[in-house]
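pasting input
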Amino acid sequence: MNLMTEPTARFPSPYELSSPAGSEGWQKIYPYYLNFNSELKAEDEKKFWFCDSQHWPYPFKPFDVIGIDFAVKCLSQYNTRHLMVPPANGLEMRILNGYLYLSPVPVAPEKIPDRVPLFLERAGYYYQNWNRLLENWKKKISGVISEMESIKFEKLPDMVALDRVTSGSGLDNTQELLTNYDRSIQLCYTAWQYHFEFLNLGYAAYLDFFMFCKEHFPNIPDLAVARMVQGIDVELFRPDDELKKLARLAVELGVADALATGSVDQALAAVEQKPNGSKWLAAWKAAQDPWFNFTIGNGFYSRDKYWIEHLDIPLRFIRDYIKRVQKGETIERPTAALIAERDRISKEYAELLSGEARAAFEGKLGLARVVFPYVENHNFYIEHWFMGTFWRKMRELSRVLGDVGFWSDPDDMFYFGRNELRDILFDYASSWAAGVPPIGAKLLGKKIAERRKIIDALSTQPPQPALNEPPAVITEPFTIMLWGITSDTVKSWLKKATTSTGLTGMAASPGTVEGRARIVRSDADLEKIKEGEILVATVTAPAWAPVFGKIKAVVTDIGGMMSHAAIVCREYGLPAVTATGTATTTIKDGQMLRVDGSKGEVTILS
Amino acid sequence: MATSTSSAGNSGGDGARAQYVIPFEAAAAEPVARIGGKCAGLAALVGASAPVSPGFAVTTDAFLEMMAVDGLAKEIKGILARLDVNDVRNEAHVSQDIGEAIARRAMPSHIAAAIRSAYARLGTGSTVDAAVAVRSSGTAEDLPDASFAGQGDTYLSIVGGDTVVDKVKKCWASLYTARAISYRAQCRIGHLDVQMAVAVQVMVNARSAGVAMTLDPSNGDRSKIIIESTWGLGETLVSGEVTPDHFMIDKVMLMPITRRISVKDHELVSDPTTRAAVRCKIQGERRAQPSVTDDELQSIARVVKAIERHFGSPQDIEWAIDNTRTESGGVVILQSRPETVWSMKKTQSARANYGTMGVLDTLIAPLLPKK
């Protein structure tokens, strides 16, 4: 589906667009506040909305709305209520045809000056006490994760245990069931507040350094700025580093062949038979906590697969690494070389400046380096480790409810929103108390089927990149740095004919290569990737990093310099073009592409 | 070694021995007064470990001995006494007369022998004569504040010792072209105060050639390298008869930022049989193709960056790609001169906040009216 091919000044209105056949009634499966409502048409049409297909590339199941509700709200609160970011409040959100649309809320010009001293005080406090506050943050988030881990969902017993009688507790097991569910949701909410506690400030400091470089070194490549700031020992890359260590260890200990074939259980059993096998197995176990709390999805979907529950995934990556080690390749990231390169680049740009400009450069670079570890690592703690635990518990709950008849497929629970689920849980509790099967077991099957049909229908039509008229100026830092939405990218989405020969986007990671396209719409598609292909996706995830050893380049629909796709591609030296708007809908599987990550151009050669 | 500028010839005899030819790799310490600006530049490039085509300087010692033949200098002085700088035809006549005065006199044979001998050493094997460029290297050239670019003769693709000798003499004579005379008059430089050295250098088999500046000449931005290139020898670009391909490279990352590929109509190449430089029309796809590959761009950028670092100031460089050479990705540096425009200007050092204040400024900036 192409954008309009002649230059227009705006994108379509949400009220003009139709929904795909079979999806009628989709609005009812989402909360009222997330729909475009005809009574609010006049106001909504004045606002510019962009589609976040970077984090949410698939239509939402009702439960998964928790991700956008919490993430976007928490992002917003820090701009609007904590830090008082002078020109920017938060982001409004809506769902259209199953996809998320965001609209940055500006601050009225007359209110901006009053916010300045507040920002200086509040943001200043965090910048000046960053490392201490971050140490504390790690403790807080570890506490949240441990508590989440400790929650259990169990089937209600036929009879309360005797000790509830003899202890005089007076409470039944539904007490835990209902409390644990509410507590899970609350912990999730807390985790997302923590996610953004530092992130807005991190992006703002990076943006400050970035803009300074663009001003003093006109046309400096975005990559150069990122290289000066990016950390070397980044926790986000640790899971992949652990796999590499395990691969090398397997070769050193002589268990590589035992690992090479069979299911996870078969391979591990074969390793155990080998001398030194137990040594490798101990390392394998040790690496899992916490580093296998890592998803090849992005953490926002109930069906995202985590390594720790799908050990075949990390094992597959280890097997690929073993092959490369056996060929004599160096698979480890060259950290010494990366550090030397970072220092060289920083020094050479600094030397081009003098006096006050140089002092400002060093100051801004210094702050950007302080904040950057968090910018990269928060993703591991929240999207991977916390959300992995959360989804695991939710699936545990789903199996409990499935066991008592609500549904047969554990994925079906997620066709209900988190608040609808409270009713389902009370139905269970109440029916259990009454001594009858839960009502939902008889009735919900029909609803699940309806909703499945609706979401499947919504999945057939990729989303518009944006709605309504773009603003003259975009000021919200996330919108710029994370989503890559600047006035320029929006203009280029509007103006360019997405011709049959090429796309332009952000030059996210340098280099030029040619290869066959492989469209990846879900993690299931990852297995189809062949050596030397070019990955084309709405979004990529850091956990796809092991796949990056096979591919030649990455092209995405959306994403800025700070998107995970860009960060990982730079780390792995792969050319990447992000923020093309329509790569996954324009390019077809098997087409020959030329990707120029230095210029941000993708050419379809055949 | 002390140089002698007196007209008393001194081949042999007292302590200060004249040297008529000096190979570039031995010339790093020689002053411009002895080997001229161009040779001094080439010697300095060799000193900077830049890839340079081999060659030698014919020194001003040789030139001054020529000036002493049969009172040549005196005769020239006499002719110049008639010079009227406001009369173009007069200038032309003066120039012609001086030219004839030089042509009438033979180059001292010991000097010619020295040149032939140095030339022979440039040849490949014992029998194949090198094709060389014979270029004027004036002593007033390439001073930072006097842009004498384009003065003096240049002869390309010269083969054979006798021809080389002949062209050296012609370079000497080009000190007195009408244009040179006029220029010196305008700049108030004494005509007999300047000498001419000559650079004899193996011709670069230039598949492509061009210029590079280690800053952006459109705005003085020192974080950039600007490279312009065309097919064949770089003279077509320097003379302005061809619009070159244009590339902007980030100096720190060595990444290309912009490129403009032009349609290149013709090129100057060495004819394989005659080895003379001939002008050929470019046909077909090559006209609109980039005249350097991305790898070659990288190599050029790397080399010029190192040269700038060595000399400590922005440079204006002529280069060629000779893909019969394997070092430096085929890059050969022909000339490097200090850039003269932006290097003179004082750089502004703008004040900028950093820390929280800096972040605030950046967040507010999109709202401020554009300057």
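fyi Residues 235-335 of chain A form one domain.
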